[in-house]
Amino acid sequence: MRRAAPAHPLADRTILLVDDDPANIQHVREGLAGPGYRFREAHDGTEALRSLRESRPDLIVMDVEMPRLGGVEVCRIIKANSGEGGFGFIPIILVTARQAAGKVEGLELGADDYLVKPFDMMELSARVKSMLRLKVLQDALVEKNRELDFKNRELDRANKELAQKREELLNLTRIDALTGLYNRRYFEERLNEEFARSSRYRSPLSLVMMDIDHFKRLNDTYGHPFGDEVLRSVAKAVRGRLREVDFVARYGGEELIALLPETGTKEALGACERIREAIASVRLEHRTADGTRQEVRCTASLGVASVPDRTLLATEDLLREADTCLYAAKAAGRNCVRQYRDGAPE
């Protein structure tokens, strides 16, 4: 059995032949018929551009001198729109009866090759094969670049997703599950950072400790699930009265703590009063087993200390004195604020 001859490596490549003389087109078609190329025809520059928009040929063999729109002008248009959003790379062989002057002009406008009539068909065939090989290589390069761009975009997307997941996992280790505030461990990290920054630049920093008044009584009276609801509502009220730059955490049990950067004693006292009023305005509803509804309100006591202060030289000093002021607020009857100033709560 005879084996079929292998297909020519450039078979099925499309060549657009552009010439106002049908006999010239037929002559070129017959001379290039062997490898199995596909041919399209156009009889002037306008037809060539129309054909180009309908389908992208792999090569254009075009006469320079044609009515209406000549080959050089068509070449200029094609090469000016050779980007990926336009025609892309299409090699062009210009053919003319003129001599060197036209050749220079055509090559300067981006023609990839130039033949002068009458030309040898074997020479044209060799140049066509050379241009088509160039087109194959260029197409492969474009495809590789597209694949690389796609992979890079996918890698970028995967990296962003990974970074987001890492941030989410990191936040899980920083967040108190009940209140949605930061937890004590992360608060202490931030406190050390903010205190160091305050010390370095002598910028004000205030720390607020707050405790829900009679929280144990609320738990004992209404149950722990209701106590959890109290904590969530108070946390929301506190967060709503502070700035985005302020840092609020659950410090333990019913105790919350807030760090207020760039906030001195006067501003800190005002912030504490806003927090106290917000907590006092919280309205909660408790339903008893028989369906009776009861409104429950709560208050909080707050203690605040600020730096720079000549007696507060470390984070432990700031925490201690804010805590001392908190207990002073409770001793003063609760639902009030006490501030550390001049070495003592006031």
Structure description:
It is built from ten helices and 13 strands. By secondary structure, it is α/β, with parallel strands linked by helices. The chain has a six-stranded mixed sheet with strand order 7-8-6-11-12-13, sandwiched between helices. A five-stranded parallel sheet has the order 2-1-3-4-5, with helices on both faces. The longest helix has 54 residues, at 121-174.
Chart the SSEs and their pairings.
Blueprint: E1 14-18, H1 22-31, E2 38-42, H2 45-54, E3 59-63, H3 71-80, E4 92-96, H4 100-108, E5 113-116, H5 121-174, H6 184-201, E6 205-212, H7 215-222, H8 224-240, E7 247-252, E8 255-261, H9 265-280, E9 284-287, E10 293-296, E11 300-307, H10 315-331, E12 337-341, E13 344-345
Parallel strand pairs: 1-2, 1-3, 3-4, 4-5, 11-12
Antiparallel strand pairs: 6-8, 6-11, 7-8, 9-10, 12-13
Helix pairs in contact: 2-3, 7-8, 8-9
The beta-strand count equals: 13
CATH class of the largest domain: Alpha Beta
Distance between the first and last residues' Cα:
109 Å
Mean pLDDT: 88
- CATH level 4 superfamily of the largest domain: Reverse transcriptase/Diguanylate cyclase domain
- Shape summary: rod-shaped
* Biggest sheet statistics: 6 strands, mixed
Number of domains: 2
Strand order of the largest sheet: 7-8-6-11-12-13
Radius of gyration: 41 Å
CATH fold descriptor of the largest domain: Alpha-Beta Plaits
The DSSP helix count reads: 10
CATH architecture of the largest domain, by name, is: 2-Layer Sandwich
Structural class: alpha/beta
Low-confidence stretches: none
Strand content bin: 15-25%
Query: Could you estimate the helical fraction of the residues in percent?
Result: 40-55%
Secondary-structure element pattern, one letter each: EHEHEHEHEHHEHHEEHEEEHEE
